[in-house]
Specification:
With about 290 residues, this protein is of the alpha/beta class. About 50% of the residues lie in helices and about 15% in strands. Helix 2 (about 55-70) crosses helix 3 and helix 4 runs antiparallel to helix 5. The longest helix has 17 residues, at about 215-230.
Amino acid sequence: MAKAYKKRSLGRGLSSILNDDENNILDQKNNRLFNEIEIDLIDLNPFQPRTNFNTSDLEELTSSIDKLGLIQPITIKKNNGRFTLISGERRLKAFKKLSKKSIPAYIRLANDQESLEMALVENIQRKNLDPIEIAISYSRLTEELKISHEEMSKRVGKDRTTITNYIRLLKLDPIIQSGLRDNFISMGHGRALININSFSEQLSVYEKIVKKSLSVRDTEKLVSQIRGRKSTIKKPMSKYYLDIKDQIQKNFETIVKFNFNKKTKSVSFDFQSEEKLKSFLKQLNEK
C-alpha cells in the first residue's frame, strides 16, 4: 500500500536532514513532523469548538492560498492509520475548495487533552471570532482541563475577568446567544442581560434592544429597573408567622406587624391604649 503522505521539499539544508522514515521529527522542540498529507485521510477534530466560518473570509483565504500557497501548515496527529486535525480547519476547508489532494501539515505527537488545549487556544487567539465561540472555548478549557479561570488566564494571556465575563455569556437564553453571534446585539448588551435570571424576561428586554436600537447604557438602566421592581415585591408571609401573629393579636388585643428584609427582621405592636400596653409588658415580665 502506498504511503498516505509524502515528504515536502523544504530546501537544501532540511532535505539533507530528512530520510524516508515516517517518524522523523523536523521540529524536535515542538515534537512535530512536517509532511504533505492526503486530505481524504484527515478527519476533523472532535474537540474543535468553532462551528461557523465567515463565508467571505473563507473565500478570501482560499484566493490567497491559490495565489501565494499555504504559509502556515495545518497541525494533525496520527490516529489508527488516519489523521485527526488539531488546528487549521479554515486552511483545510480552503484546500478542499481548491480541489487539492494533499496539504502541508505538522504531525504532532499529542494526546487528547493536548489536542483539545491546542485547538481551543488557537481558536481563542484568532480574529473575528464571535463572543459565544470564545465563551464556548474558554468554558471547554476550564471543564476539560479542570483548571481555574486564573490558571487559564496565564495559559492564554488574557485577564481573568475577561475570561469570566465571556463564560457568563453562556447563561443567556439560546436565542439571545444566536443574536450575539449574528451581531444583533453587542457583548455589552449580553453582559447586561446576564443580570436577569429569567429567560422570558431576558427575551423581553432583548426584543426591546433590537426593535428600539437601545444602547448598552440604556439596556443597563432597563435591567436595573427590572431588578429593582423585583426586589420590592414582598414574599408572602409563611403560615408559621401568620399563626403566631393571629395568636398574639387575640391574646393581647394588639395589632402585630412583621417587617422582614434581607438585613433585619423586626416585630412591631400597636396598642389602642396605655393600659393594654402595660398589661402586655406585665405579662412579658412575668414570663
